[in-house]
Amino acid sequence: MSVRGSVFDANYPGRWVSFKCNSTYGEAIRAVCREFIVLCRRLNLFTEALVAIDGSKFKAVNNRDRNFTRAKMQRRLEQIEASLNRYFGQLDSADREEAALAQLKTARLQDKIAALKKEMQRLKELEVQLLKTPDQQISLTDPDARSMKTRGDGIVGYNVQTAVDAKHHLIVAHEVTNVGHDRDQLSNMAQQARTAMHCKDLSVVADRGYFNGEEILACDTAGITTYLSKPQTSNNQAHGLFGKRDFHYFPEENVYRCPAGERLIWRMTTQERGQNLHCYWSSACPRCAIKSQCTPSQYRRVRRWEHEAVVDAVQARLDRDPEKMRVRRQTVEHPFGTLKAWMGATHFLTRTLVRVRTEMSLHVLAYNLKRVMNILGSAPLLQAIRA
Ligand code: SF4
After folding, report:
1. N or C end: fewer C-beta atoms under 10 angstroms in the chain?
2. How many structural domains are present in the chain?
3. 355: exposed, middle or buried (C-beta count within 10 Å: 0-12, 13-18, 19+)?
4. What phi, psi does 226 have (nearest 5°)?
5. In the listed set 87, 117, 139, which residue is the last one of a domain according to the structure?
């Protein structure tokens, strides 16, 4: 089965071109997208070996009212329950009114009650289906679309990932997922970008939404240099206590030094969610003069992931070169802004992940083509394509 749609033609503003999005066309369109990046490489457009990775949420063909999470379902059922109780109360008071008026009012209320009971029945049937899904969520128009948080009210849609070259803002790799966060995408996007750009020493810069030790380690192992800022998630700092940043690690001695100048030595190693965590504390804590600023417990314990050196190195790199974050912002804003302006208020026109991926590849291809035409001119690009 194929789905037809239309996308904006980047070459001719105002014109729309129609397309089919099925798995056969999808693979072919993605192949053309990859080939175009190979052409850009041959034209020496990737000279800086630096990409910015970012994700943005795009709306699916699925109204918010046709998406249900457990919480949303619960809320809707409670609202119906409250409305039913109100109408039952009004039915009781209608009985006490004058006969003709009461009859009219009762008939109207009974219609409303019947409609609500029908809706409640429909929602309960949907709830049974919802509870069977792995993420406890269903979308009725596009079954793959998911409710996602955004800076505004949130949307029902897809998360589009891009790796954009910092020099010419070309999209060298892209991916569409229906997972609402970016935490697991860094190494996947970085490796796709490196393959596409064919460069050995790639640097990637991303925002704190991508900060994930395992992902940073995967990049490090693959020889990709990462620049990310660390999110501040320390509970201690939120409670006005010293954060982990106030404790300095000395790798030669394998100890931490705390704000009181005491040494926190290694005590034990534990396992949490598959990670080995080393645990350090000092015997001086119970007698410490500034303990009230450090911990309400007897000892302040500091935990260190066995690969934390890789994470520390990322922070140290960014401290030495904070400019990279400005480059990141300037690089990623351009393509997402352009793509969303082309797509208009509705964003995707096709349904299901496989077709949405194809649709996105078409947009990315159009964007890259237009960029290269702006950089080199149409005639040299056509010449390069023919060569
Ligand atoms: S409570 Fe312990 S870890 Fe905290 S500052 Fe005092 S000695 Fe150092």
Report:
1. N
2. 3
3. buried
4. -110, 145
5. 139
**Are 51 and 166 spatial neighbours (Cβ–Cβ below 8 Å)?**
yes
Global model pTM greater than 0.70 = yes
CA distance 3 to 212: 37
Q: What residues form DSSP beta bridges with 159?
A: 57, 177
CB atoms within 10 A of CB 168: 20
C-beta 302 within 6 A of ligand 1: no
The type of residue at 368 is: N
CA–CA gap between residue 246 and residue 51 (Å, rounded):
32
Looking at the structure, tell me whether residues 251 and 298 fall in a common domain: yes
- pLDDT tens, 313-367? 998 999 999 999 999 999 998 899 999 999 988 889 999 999 999 999 999 999 9
Residue of 247, 264, 282, 298 best suited for mutating to test ligand 1, as the one with most atoms within 8 Å of CB: 282
Q: How big is the CA angle at 317 (ends 256 and 167), to the nearest 5 degrees?
A: 165
Query: Using CA atoms, how far apart are residues 13 and 18, in angstroms rounded to an integer?
Result: 15
Is the same domain home to 16 and 74?
Answer: no
* Contact of 343 with 58, CB cutoff 8 Å: yes
Residues 160 and 55 in one domain: yes
Question: Would the CB of 255 count as within 6 Å of ligand 1?
Answer: no
Ligand 1 atom closest to the Cα of residue 259 is: 5
Distance 213 CA to ligand 1 centre (A): 26
Pair (196, 165) in one structural domain: yes
Same domain, 102 and 149: no
Q: Domain range spanning residue 299?
A: 235-307
**CATH number of the domain within which 192 lies:** 3.30.420.10
